[in-house]
Amino acid sequence: MATQHSRSAARVMMAPAVFLLLVWMLVPLCLTLYFSLLDYRPLRGTFDCCEGLGNYVRFVSSSAFQDSVVTTLMMVGGILVITVIGGILLALLLDQPIFGQGVVRILVIAPFFVMPTVAALVWKNMFMNPVNGLLAHLWRFFGAEPVEWLTNVPLLSIIIIVSWMWLPFATLILLTAIQSLDSEQLEAAEMDGAGFFSRFGYIILPHMARAITVVILIQTIFLLSIFAEIFVTTGGGFGTRTLTYLVYQRVIESQNVGLGSAGGIIAVILANIVAFFLMRIVGKNLDA
Fold first, then answer.
1. pLDDT of residue 165
2. Alpha carbon of 165 to those of 25, 121, 131, 170: distances in Å?
């Protein structure tokens, strides 16, 4: 049991790291908040300190903001559906005794360690290219016309790319949950005549509920800031402009630092609201 002295020593040793972390986060946040109150457009030489909340009003009232929020929610929702369902199926498959099980698990988890820009470029040039892509050759093999993925179905294309990257994470968490299940309980249910779907619906899936909730929480927090995949593939066009990409366009492309900073603060607030409600859901689930 830790004594008061050991706890105090631990706090002292952790203090420098905590201080550096707070500075690392708070300084950029405070600068963003400061710029959001200005009419700051470097290329035009504009630097007006009396803008106030005008940037926030203009950013929220624009049609681009509403469209970007809808696009963000659709993208996050689609990725979560694919990764959770696919993660459950892969976790069930990898839990079975198969030849080369360790190698197969490593190969399944490998995409999670690929850089987002690299993954997007690979999918864009090697898989989704309408002329020389692997999917184009597959379509022609079956006598169909190749699909111009990033032009005809750009939102679905990005959902597929990001899902491919996050599916290993969900699989790993859900596989751990399956392997923590008491095998005697499954054996007893099988001896009582319960089929696979009955065992899955009444035993395995309820046991995985907490892991599924954690996967949804962690992925949602990270997926709200998707940027690299959109930048590399569609450049925010064809209805793929998320809230994060809209902030980038306002700051870099439009050179309106004040408006973009206001968008960044709004994005942080919305992300924290989503994280708060998800944490409440996770807390209730874990306490159940």
1. 92
2. 26, 13, 24, 10
Question: Domain 56-287, CATH 1.10.3720.10 — does that match?
Answer: yes
pLDDT of residue 121: 92
Show Cβ contacts of residue 137 under 8 Å, excluding neighbours closer than 6 positions: none
- Taking a C-beta distance cutoff of 8 angstroms, is the pair 274, 216 a contact? no
Cβ 85 vs Cβ 167: under 8 Å: no
Write down the pLDDT at residue 283: 64
pTM, to two decimals: 0.86
**Cα–Cα nearest to 132, from 144, 143, 140, 142:** 140
Q: Where in the chain is the domain with CATH 1.10.3720.10?
A: 56-287
Give the residues of the chain that fall short of pLDDT 50.
Answer: 1
- Summarised one tens digit per residue, pLDDT across range 120-142 is 999 999 999 988 889 999 999 88
pLDDT of residue 206: 86
In this prediction, residue 74 carries a pLDDT of 93
